[in-house]
Predict the 3D structure of the following.
Amino acid sequence: MSAGPTSLLGLSNPSSPWLLSLVKYFNIFKVSLIERLTYRADFLLGTFLRMLPLVTTLLLWRAVYATKDEISGYTFRQVVAYLLLVHVSRMFSSMPGLASGIARDVRDGNLKRYLIQPLDLMAYLLAYRVAHKVAYIVTSLPLYSVIFWLFWGFFEWPDAPRLYVAYFAALVMSFLLGFAFEASLGMLGFWFLEISSFLYLVNTVNFFVSGHFLPLDLLDPWVAGVLKVLPMQYMAYFPAALIMGKAGDWESIVLGLGIEAIWCLVFFSVARLGYLAGLRRYSGYGG
Amino acid sequence: MGADAMQPGRSFIGYLRLLGVFARFSLTREMAFRGNFVMKVLLELVWLMILLVFYQTLFRGVDSISGWDRYSFLFFLGCYYTLEGVVETLFLENFVEFSDLVRSGNLDLHLLKPIDEQFLLSFRLVDWSTVPKLFIGAGMMVISVLQLGHPVGALNIVCFLGTFIAGVSMAYSFLLILSSTAIWMVRNQSLMELWWLFSTLMRYPRDIYNVTWAWPIRIVFSFVLPALLVVSVPAEVIGRATMNPWWICWMGISALLSFVLSRWIFIRSIACYRSASS
């Protein structure tokens, strides 16, 4: 690309290095957004098909609740609401291909570009992922709007505005946690040549322990207790439970958000330390 | 080329022997990366655990789901798990690879081989890491049969085996149709997505679709694209001792029709292949 980042944004006279840096990552965001929207039909088909498992799951739960009104504190309507809200959580926290992308860059030597260009790996990937998330959320919005409109009566929305603020904070942090968690896993690529099977295993476990499959409260109490201590619950269960009023009183919610923030910091630190330690081993073959 | 393959020298026995060679070759390949193989087996066990915890959770609060009690539902799950194991062991990897061959233009090499193209592309790779699923699934079925409240006779077993094979054949045909479309849509990332859709419809008993608004789904996926029958019909034969001759016959007819249709689509799509590669 011959044009500099500032001219691409229409800024000819950057006043500070800080602004220049911001413009650089904004451009990464812009290019990634255009790339993501290139395969619209494929993308929309994929999104549509993902709805079918939702329909069969709803039918299964309807059959489960045919003879009972309430199981472990959840009515049928609440389970449906939960399963829809968990989609919103995962919309923010899922990071397909992030860890495997880092491991691939390490393996085939493409990591070099982050070392010789004035570009930080983590900052670049974060900007890239924000673009992907924005594209994903915007293109899925019409479909999700229809689904939420169809099931509007199943939701019991809270009155207190602060709960919506807390929900939004939980979702943003679930994005950051999902990013840092996947990036930490990707750093394993410095030590192991092939980690794809391991990543698939972790994602499978995560799918269940994060509460994507079913509300954690429906599990045996001791299993649910263990899973609620793990950081994965913040990627699916916690935001959904929060807005449904299932995450306890305000103090518990604030505590939950605080713990989520700590997990974000922990995983960002792990990813950064893993990256620095990995670079000491990195030989830059290939590419 | 397909007709040439049916020479006396390439008899049914010949194809069976080739299948044995493919299986041996795949095993040798797997054993070169033992760590990866162990990880894949572990992954299957994790899925099994998730499936069982889910099953346990469903029956924590209720005694039966759409007429399926705890043990008949376990039989259904065992049947689903075994069928999925058969599909994953024999076909799935081949079809995923098929899309890649089309994209990279490497399909040429396979089309030149003096055997039936469909056979080669469907059975070239055997995924040994999913073989344990066959035994675990069969184990689940045996455990549930021992606990079922009704007797299971020889006729049930024969009908079960027949409909199970028909189910595998339908799953195979559907995969073949899906991957044949890879020739027209070169960027075919949604193959696995579509397979996921198909297997989602197989995952739960078809009785859960007995809701007014779900009737269109039930009709379409029983008669047009009969995904709902694949596991439900064989599982009903033993799990619930339901021997409805109409459904059993329809299962056989749809398996045959899907196979013929998939073969036709495959041959048509091969004729369209332009070997575009980099």
Q: What stands out?
A: Residues 2-272 of chain B form one domain. The CA atoms of residues 8 and 24 of chain B lie 24 Å apart. Strands of chain B lie at 64-65, 68-69.
